[in-house]
Specification:
The structure holds 2 protein chains of 2 kinds.
Chain A lengths: L2 H8 L4 H9 L14 H5 L3 H7 L6 E2 L3 E4 L3 E2 L5 E7 L4 E8 L6 E7 L6 E6 L5 E9 L2 E11 L7
Parallel strand pairs in A: 1-9, 3-9
Antiparallel strand pairs in A: 2-4, 4-7, 5-6, 5-8, 8-9
Chain B lengths: L5 E7 L2 E7 L23 E8 L2 E8 L8 E7 L6 E8 L4 E7 L2
Classes of the chains: A alpha+beta, B mainly beta.
Chain lengths: 155, 104
């Protein structure tokens, strides 16, 4: 989701392009290896997590569908399915807003992969499950509330 | 890693429906062991990648908030029966796993 990271990944020259980008001051060395987005995953509130994935102010979209239970039987295993009908969807991120660390995952799609991700997440308490979609260089979002009776983060 | 990763890939029209079940404890690092009272160290898959006939289709970064034994479903348009799907994951300790399946 980080636009710098995506640009690095796109450049086929790989190491050469990275070296040039670092020299030009466009890319900090710590970002160069497209490492796991620690800052975003360890962000303790949804705003910082969204900034961490490059989605500080996404537009609300009705073309994103979140399928998740209204009430989760088990907060440790909440099935979440995100479908994006937005043309050119290149990435989907899932967040559980009230988790201690809201970012659950980012899913970059390429080569024919559709705007669809299905997974199972842990939720600590009742919260909005938020999807952020990157399409055509812009970000979009939708959210759905999932009630949790027994929190699933083991705390 | 008691069981290998399982991949099931089937066609629905011209879209391959791929379902992956990975075997991993996905410990967040914030859970206390019920017996010892000690924090169970963070141990979770961080990256999952998938290719279709060698072409990357999915590059995912996930964290401890994905449920134990991660399930991941995705769809690829333009695939066909006989195509090969390969899924790789790497966790925060550097441990890795890989599996492949042929679209049925």
């Amino acid at each position: 989701m980080n636009p710098l990271r995506r640009n690095v990944l796109k450049s086929a020259a790989g190491a050469g392009a990275v070296a040039v980008a670092v020299a030009a001051g466009l890319l900090k060395p710590t970002q160069a290896m497209a490492a796991w987005n620690k800052a975003a995953f360890e962000a303790k509130n949804v705003g910082d997590a969204m900034k961490g994935i490059g989605a500080a102010s996404p537009a609300d979209s009705k073309d994103i569908t979140i399928k998740a239970p209204d009430i989760a039987e088990n907060g440790a295993v909440v099935p979440v399915e995100v479908t994006s009908g937005i043309a050119g969807t290149s990435s989907i991120a899932i967040l559980a807003e009230k988790n201690g660390q809201p970012l659950v995952g980012t899913f970059d799609l390429a080569g024919g992969a559709q705007g669809f991700i299905s997974t199972r997440i842990k939720m600590g308490q009742t919260s909005l499950v938020r999807a952020v979609v990157n399409a055509g260089g812009k970000t979009y979002t939708a959210a759905k509330e999932v009630k949790v009776t027994i929190g699933g983060c083991g705390g | 890693m008691a069981q290998p990763m399982r991949i099931r890939a089937t066609m629905a029209g011209d879209v391959a429906d791929v379902k992956v079940l990975m075997n991993h404890p996905m410990e967040t690092g914030t859970r206390k062991d019920a017996k010892t009272g000690q924090l169970v160290p963070a141990h979770f898959i961080q990256e999952v990648t998938a290719t279709l006939n060698g072409t990357p289709v999915l590059n995912a970064e996930i964290g401890g908030a994905v449920s134990k034994n991660p399930y991941l479903g995705f769809k690829v348009k333009g695939a066909k029966a006989g195509d090969k799907v390969v899924v790789n994951w790497v966790d925060n300790t550097g441990d890795k796993n890989s599996a492949e399946a042929t679209i049925g």
